[in-house]
Backbone:
């Protein structure tokens, strides 16, 4: 039996035999075996100095172009800054020029009222307080510029229809800087209710009532402009977009002209404390509150006196609000006028002003 290592030797001999024979034959015949390798070409450029010079020139050109661009940007920036500064000055001059007519008109108004003894101003309102004392009566004028519609609103007494409170209480409760009494009212067993058409927050309280007799509606629209007059239909008033307002009697001025005061209101009463509200051409408001019924000889003003006063002051539209014991003027948490009842009367509606 053949051993395993002999089997292996025989196998390798059989496998390598042909190659060994071929190798021996080549040696006998003198044949040589050559392995040819393909050379790799390698070229050294002789133009390196010229190329470097060209690149250097291009870099110089790029540097010069960059410097030119930077200089141009700086000049452009300087020109922009100068232009912006010039435009800013032009805008400021234009704004100043645009305000000149307003300033001139305001100065004209103020010159007729005198010097204010109290001024309140904020981003939303400018309020100036004057004394009114032509000799026949004594009162106060409050000129107001509403810089925002939110600077004025109407409130109900204790925020409830049929309830009432003093203007001072309403102003303190809402944090108002000033306030006056608003429309008339009617008392009943169920409470003290606003007279006729009343609008609060754009909604009619108790519905719309067409104007009758000498009644009117007065308030502010959604843009903060004074609106008022007599209205035969709700659609007619809706076209003015009322935000709030109340009713009383009578209208004193319309479009800068005196309105006929009904005989009834000329003498009933003849003289009394008054609260009136009006506006100027520039939409500033003017409120006059007159004292009366006191022991110092002042018995108030007639409607004709107030009407003439407003006309001379250049007021465009003016409306007589509730007067007598209802007349109220509060500023900065204090009562300004002298209430004829000795104290402020609780009323159902108030016009309040806010800083």
Residues:
């Amino acid at each position: 039996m053949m051993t395993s290592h002999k089997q292996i030797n025989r196998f390798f001999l059989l496998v390598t035999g042909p190659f060994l024979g071929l190798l021996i034959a080549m040696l006998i015949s003198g044949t040589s075996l050559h392995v040819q390798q393909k050379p790799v070409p390698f070229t050294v450029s002789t133009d390196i100095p010229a190329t470097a010079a060209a690149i250097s020139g291009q870099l110089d050109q790029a540097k010069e172009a960059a410097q030119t661009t930077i200089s141009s940007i700086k000049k452009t920036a300087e020109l922009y800054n100068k232009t912006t500064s010039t435009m800013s000055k032009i805008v400021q001059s234009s704004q100043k020029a645009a305000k000149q007519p307003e300033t001139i008109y305001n100065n004209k108004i103020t010159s007729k009222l005198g010097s204010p003894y109290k001024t309140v101003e904020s981003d939303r309102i400018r309020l100036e307080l004057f004394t009114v004392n032509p000799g026949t009566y004594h009162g106060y004028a409050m000129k107001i510029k509403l810089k925002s519609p939110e600077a004025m609103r109407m409130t109900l007494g204790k925020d409830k229809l049929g309830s009432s409170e003093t203007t001072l209480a309403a102003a303190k409760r809402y944090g108002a800087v000033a306030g006056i009494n608003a429309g008339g009212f009617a008392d009943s067993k169920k409470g003290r209710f606003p007279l006729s058409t009343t609008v609060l927050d754009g909604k009619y309280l108790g519905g719309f009532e067409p104007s009758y007799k000498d009644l009117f509606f007065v308030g502010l629209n959604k843009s903060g402009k004074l609106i008022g007059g007599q209205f035969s239909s709700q659609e007619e008033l809706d076209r003015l977009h009322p935000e709030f307002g109340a009713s009383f009697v009578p209208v004193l001025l319309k479009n800068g002209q005196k309105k006929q005061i009904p005989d009834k209101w000329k003498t009933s009463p003849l003289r009394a404390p008054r609260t009136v509200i009006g506006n100027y051409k520039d939409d500033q408001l003017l409120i006059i509150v007159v004292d009366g019924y006191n022991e110092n000889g002042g018995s108030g003003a007639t409607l004709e006196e107030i009407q003439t006063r407003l006309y001379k002051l250049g007021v465009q539209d003016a409306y007589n609000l509730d007067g007598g014991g209802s007349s109220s003027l509060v500023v900065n948490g204090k009562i300004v006028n002298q209430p004829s009842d000795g104290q402020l009367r609780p009323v159902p509606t108030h016009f309040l002003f806010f800083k």
About this structure: The helical segments are 4-29, 48-113, 167-174, 234-238, 263-267, 303-312.
